[in-house]
Amino acid sequence: MPNRDDGAVLITGASAGIGRAFANAYARRGHDLVLVARREEPLQEVADILSASQSIKALTLSADLSDPAAPKRLWQEVEDRGISIKTLINNAGFGVPGNLCDVNWARHRATIEVMATAPVHLTQLFAPSMVRQGGGEIINVASLSALLPPHAGGTLYYPVKSFLYQFSLAIREELRSGGVHVTALCPGFTETSFQKAAGGSVESVEVPRWMWSRPEDVARVAIAAVERNKAVCVPGLLNKVIATGFKLMPGPLGRWLVRSDA
Fold first, then answer.
1. Which residues are tagged catalytic?
2. The model's pTM
């Protein structure tokens, strides 16, 4: 069980992809971990490997963040164990392919709970103790899509990620005086199990492999960004160019460019 004086790192969606890359990176830095995911077996595998190879302590907590009660249960478990959380990484997420009216509501509700409600609730629960401790770090994993015009298909994904991006900027200002750094991470195409978990997602399109990022690189630049107290982190030169280009161009032109029939 994590018990370092400088606090542990809590990562949601830690069993694979960017979440696992964050776990690897922080473990190599000597930080104890609280790893959260739905799937208990791969989560425990990550914890066992890192505990043995990096001589850190890793606690695994299986949780389905689509359950509105899950964030409070996680916080209570951490509190009951006396674990101090210095860094919170809201990474869990998935895509929903198809048009809004073609997908059942339960799937859409889960999308909102996992990628919008849960990050806000976890931030509300863990931020006060960070302030009392004199500071902390929060990384909210949004998406490059939060900075681009949305298009049809996977309709809910874009506004949810935009919400998480805007929430990060807002809560950053609220927590600034308490010494808590908040960074909105906006990765582009990344080699993860995201597409498989989505059953084919809003990002499962034909994209040249050179446009994809490695999760290890995304985690590395995100950690550097939050340590420097950067508000937004867009990993990769190409992604930065894309984000800047759409920011500067007129809105109607940007929306036309991303239309599937354009």
1. 157
2. 0.90
